[in-house]
Amino acid sequence: MSPGVLLLGLLLYLGLLFLVALWGESRPSFTQSPWIYALSLAVYATAWTFLGSAGRAATEGATFLPVYLGATLVLLLWPWLHGRLLALARTHRLTSWADFLHLRYGPGPLAPLAAGFLVVGLLPYLALQLKAIAQAFLFLSWEKAPLADVALLTALLLALFAILFGTRRLDPSERHPGLVLAVAFESVVKLLALLLVGALVLLSLGNPFPRAQAEPHLHPLLLPPEGLSGHLAWVSLVALSGLAFLLLPRQFHVAVVEGQDPRHLPQAAWAFPLYLLLINLPILPLALWGRLLLPGENPDLFVLALPLLAGSPPVAFLAFLGAVSAATAMVVVEGLALSILLSNHLLSPLLLRYRALGSLLLWRRLAILLVMLLAYLYFRLAGEAHALVGMGLISFVAVAQLAPAALLGLYWKGATGTGALAGFLAGVGLWAYTLFLPTLARSGFLSPLFLEGPHPLLHPEGLLGLKGLDPITHGFLVSLGVNLALTLGVSLFTRKDAPLGGRTGEVAALASLLERVLGKETAEAFLKEAEGLPGTEAAQRAEAFLSSALGPATARLLLLSVTEEAPGAHRPLLEEAARESKEVRAYAQALERAQAELAEAYERLKALDRAKDELLWAVSHELKTPLTAVRALAEILAAHPDLSEEERGRFTALLAKEAARLSRLVEEVLRYARLQTGPAPRKEPTDLKALAEEALSLTEPLARERGIRLERALTPLFTHTDRDRVLQVLLNLLTNAIRHARSRVRLELMPKGQEALFRVLDDGPGVPEEARERIFEPFQSLSGGMGLGLYLARRLAEGLGGRVYLEAGEGGAFAFTVPLEVEDADPSGG
To answer: Considering the entire predicted model, what is its pTM?
Structure first.
């Protein structure tokens, strides 16, 4: 194809773009559409996508997909992620992430360093666009001219195009409907061109997958990643591309500066992922046909070579225009965004110092040219040694270094400027050491010894002995991991920066300043917004106008001439001190409460320890008597085999009695131990009258032995409770009463409100007044027993929601209550 024809077609296409932009400027309402917003986001799909994705797929298979999966995942969260950022951008007229860093962390080196680093870090990405267009031009024209010469001409043309489209006014926060429409138009062109190439190749050559399966050397392209390193590389690329989509300056410009209508976000959340799906559909078939039919060709040129192979030069020319549109859109918006970064954070403070602020628009245009020439210089130094996708990924890792400072600053109040700066500097240093400088070493501009590192543990592509990872994955994980760790760690141990004091001023003076610096239109827009506002809010609005055009540092300096410190400007500092003092007091109070709780716990432990000692003493004392009797009786029976039957029967009965006593003592100890573990009661429908009759039957032998008469007055009652625990309480109370009664024990059951009341009465001596307070404590006995019966009865009753207490009057009168509960017949409420 003739170079003249290609050049003429390129110029005509650029002229068409210029007409589209002019038409958009004359009809700004047309660009206020969610479809235009979604298509403008497709500036993410550059020449890397159009040409480089097929090249990566031809060499590494489906690993080109994570670059788009990351952006898709971010878009699913787009309304939530960008909602807060859009609100801040509208209020403070933000033009870049560097503006946000200045707003969030205050004046300091972080924002200027971020601006300068983004320019350097994105040079490989811009060089990628130059390389793509130059490669495509030389390939289709069959020229042998040096690639760099074509790249230089391309850089100059695109710089001119970016200047014409993006720097017509000084205020970069003002929307550019023509630019947005041109970007959306180019998104349609590159999508249709790539789909047309894919359709032509499939219709002409057929389905490549059966032939690829017959070629063993192509099988790796059709398989998912293998091993830990393969999966780690895949996940890392997804995360990296998602962060790049959020943080790339051109994405911020089209998503935040140009598109500030939050109503567009929900549609973009599904429309842009659909766009990415469509533009990637032809990639793998093109890559496979390229490997099958063009084994010696540069994989990055398969999109152009296959239409020629299919006998369709016009489609190849359309593919060339698609590559040009992909590169042009990126270069125009990225060049504009980077020139704003340079002028607002680096140039405007210098121009203000030398009283040359009026030439800022000229310097912004020169900044675009400077960025293009620097990209060309990088291309000359290292660009020809790398594939397109590799160059783009190096820039992606560079942009990702903003993530900890930006995202933590957006969603975590604890992030500090010191922490953000420490993490950012460490991440930038590791990015340069692991990715940027190795590209220069491979190109011959640094010694090859650099790739070996000064020590095996300091290998640029294998720090600390990390092996098996590709350079991009290694550089991304190391640099961003250290960046995030330092940002979090230093922020936790440093104080948050004090906010700047507020300023106040007269609206007229502020408008006069804006007119002198930014022009009459800006001053009129400010007067319309500031009408009726107090001086402090008017000063904030004026600062936002100045900051968007000149940068936050310069805007603050200019405001000093027409404003004064607002009353209460130091209030934030006082509030911060008061808050910290309040936190200290709260911490001291918390320590006091913790100390009191520890002291209380210590006393409880001491009490439990005493209870343990008392239990051991009581158990040993109580068990000693029956054990001694059992032993003595057993020795008598063993030593006197000639005892009469009457004597032997008497001793055997005594032996059985002492064994039964021993069994009761052991059972009480076991009940005490079970009660300490606190098992939950097992409730069931229970007939309380029948349960009381059973308790009387079980204690009747003991009563008959002691000559005690058992009386009863029982009312039929039913409830939902733990039957065994109620029975145990009654047995303990009845046994206690029988031991102390003279002639009779009476058990009564009656309803009392919402409870069932048991009363156990005996005609014994009663409980002395001095013993009433401790009668329910463990190991407290008036009759020489272990003293666990009443304690167990009260604890069991409390576990059932009832009570055991001692009534006043003569003799012993113990009361026991149980809640009257009825089980629901239908738990569902039907």
So the answer is: 0.64
